[in-house]
Design goal:
This protein has about 300 residues and is of the alpha+beta class. It is built from 9 helices and 11 strands. The strands form 2 sheets. Strands 1, 2, 3, 4, 5, 6 and 7 form a 7-stranded mixed β-sheet that branches. The chain has a 4-stranded antiparallel β-sheet with strand order 9-10-8-11. Strand 9 and strand 10 form a beta hairpin. Helix 1 packs antiparallel against helix 2 and helix 2 packs parallel to helix 3. The protein starts with a strand and ends with a helix. The mean pLDDT is about 95.
């Protein structure tokens, strides 16, 4: 039987308080029909990525439970972190897995968006494949101005929320809910504390500045104090991780800086890792079917 599931990857604006992170994870675990796959927090970004999957109804219930916990426990008036955000539950994407379709995920995003407003009075923007207008497709465009500028932004032409009143929730802001293909959150730390270098490298590699297709990037300071290029890879098939790493390394070397290390936040598709192995080892005609564990669980 073909795999058919919906993955949901909420990002909440809390990466430092273990009790809040555990409450969000517990809300997912308590939802019948959902499997909690991963919880990963970053104190510097002050953000946690939660990943779970299941059938549409169960995933919708778990997503609403995550937003509910975030709204109850996070006050953005007191929140500080490296990552841009507009909401306590900042973003809630739905991702089709196996035989599930993008159309199902769009419908789920719209349904959960209405439930969030009705139950919690948090305004909702739809993004990516669920976007209602071209200028709302990209998360960086929706997040521009962040929570602090959200009230003013909602009054601008074209920026009223898709669902809810044109005023942020006083402590939880707004939430972006969408449907998208798999995304890889990928960070590369540089051997420098100079944030300007990371920002210059990010500008060179991101698509919006003329860089790599499907790559969003920004320069931030990591928990270690090192400058970090924080990256979202929207299409790893068109732009593999190895190509991104090589370009970051080359751009950093222009400033006399080396790469310290890189990390993947959350989960990653197997074929993306296979692509890295192929590039590093120059493997010929290698694919995921040759991975032992992949064959055992097929």
């Amino acid at each position: 039987m073909a795999l058919r599931a919906i993955e949901c990857v909420p990002n909440i604006s809390e990466g430092r308080r273990p009790e809040v992170i555990e409450a969000v994870a517990a809300a997912v675990r308590a939802t019948p029909g959902v499997k909690l796959l991963d919880v990963q927090s970053d104190a510097s970004h002050n953000r946690t990525v939660v990943t779970f999957a299941g059938g549409p109804n169960a995933v919708a219930a778990a997503a609403l439970a995550v937003v509910r916990e975030a709204v109850a426990r996070i006050d953005l008036r007191e929140h500080r972190g490296e990552h841009p955000r507009i909401g306590a539950a900042d973003v809630v994407p739905f991702v089709p897995v196996g035989a599930a379709t993008m159309e199902e995920c769009v419908a789920l995003a719209r349904r959960v968006g209405q439930e969030v407003w009705t139950a919690l009075r948090v305004p909702v923007y739809f993004y990516a494949r669920a976007a209602t207008a071209p200028h709302r497709v990209r998360l960086p465009d929706i997040r521009k101005g962040e929570f602090e500028g959200l009230a003013a932004k909602m009054r601008q032409p074209g920026w009223a929320p898709d669902i809810g009143e044109a005023a942020p929730h006083p402590t939880a802001g707004a939430v972006a809910i969408g449907a998208r293909p798999p995304l890889i959150a990928y960070n590369i730390n540089l051997h420098t504390t100079d944030l300007a270098v990371a920002r210059a490298v990010a500008r060179a590699i991101r698509e919006s500045s003329g860089g790599l297709v499907g790559v969003q990037a920004m320069g931030v300071t990591a928990t270690s104090g090192l400058a970090q290029v924080s990256i979202n890879v929207l299409d790893h098939r068109r732009t593999p991780l190895a190509r991104i790493f090589d370009l970051v390394r080359l751009e950093a070397e222009r400033y006399g800086v080396a790469v310290a290390e890189s990390e993947i936040v959350g989960l990653v598709p197997l074929d993306a890792v296979v692509d890295v192995a192929k590039a590093a080892l120059r493997l010929h005609a290698f694919d995921a079917a040759q991975v032992l564990e992949a064959r055992l669980v097929d």
